[in-house]
């Protein structure tokens, strides 16, 4: 047993980020009130609700206590776009995690092709597995992190990963994930094998 009250914050982070894994990565675009575009990855990210469709991202402050650009933008404009990306984009995702001035445009830096969103006034990065245009529902301070609850108002999913009955084929996608402080390919699991093992355990395969 670990006496968690005695853990340093970095130790808490290490424990949780390696144990609660792999995590999906939300690659979040946002825009400041003066029109500066921003892009950054977040892995403290999950589905908060399916009806309505709400996503949740936990954003920690910068080391100096000021809010990260994504949080500042979302609080100012109430809009963001969450992208789910393929493992091939690992270098671009890592680059957009680097701390930069609020005036720095990560999309321009990487020459990322973008298109206009349908509903929100935030750029959409092209060629992603999924794109969720969101409006802010609320932010909630939860100790060190600030939770961002974002309602999906428009979604597009790449045709490559669509199959019959509009369901995504798990074998067809290789979403980039996070384990601890490193990246992971969340599709490396041998799904048929895992399913066979589950069948042996439960006697039922759905
Ligand atoms: C894969 C990955 C996941 C990350 N997840 C988070 C996260 O969940 N919360 C957070 O506050 N920072 C996270 N970061 C760090 C931010 O991306 C980083 O602080 C970034 O500079 C924030 O950019 P911004 O100031 O433009 O919002 C993550 C970094 C990487 C590489």
Reading side by side through the largest sheet, how are the strands ordered? 3-2-6-9-10-5-4
Strand elements, count: 12
Percent helix, as a range, is: 10-25%
Mean pLDDT: 89
The number of domains:
1
Name the helix and strand elements from N-terminus to C-terminus, one letter apiece: HEEEEEHEHHEEEEEEH
What is the CATH superfamily label?
Electron Transport, Fmn-binding Protein, Chain A
Largest sheet at a glance?
Answer: 7 strands, antiparallel
Our estimate of the beta-strand percent is 35-45%
CATH class (first level) name = Mainly Beta
> Helix- and strand-based class?
alpha+beta
| Rg over alpha carbons | 18 Å
Q: Which overall shape is indicated by the principal axes computed on the Cα atoms? A: globular
CATH architectural name:
Roll
List the uncertain runs.
Answer: none
For this structure, the CATH topology is Pnp Oxidase, Chain A
The CA-CA distance between the termini, in Å, is 37 Å
Bound molecules: flavin mononucleotide
Number of helices: 5
Describe the protein's architecture and organization.
With about 210 residues, the protein is α+β, with helices and mostly antiparallel strands. The protein has one domain (about 5-200): Pnp Oxidase, Chain A (Roll), CATH 2.30.110. About 20% of the residues lie in helices and about 35% in strands. The protein has five helices and twelve strands. It has helices spanning about 10-20, 70-75, 90-95, 105-110, 190-200, and strands at about 25, 25-30, 35-40, 45-50, 55-60, 80-85, 115, 125, 130-140, 145-155, 175-180, 180-185. It has a seven-stranded antiparallel sheet, with helices on one face. Strand 7 and strand 8 form a beta hairpin. The radius of gyration is 18 Å and the shape is globular. It starts with 8 loop residues before the first helix and ends with a helix. The mean pLDDT is about 90. Bound molecules: flavin mononucleotide. Flavin mononucleotide binds next to strand 3, strand 5 and helix 2.
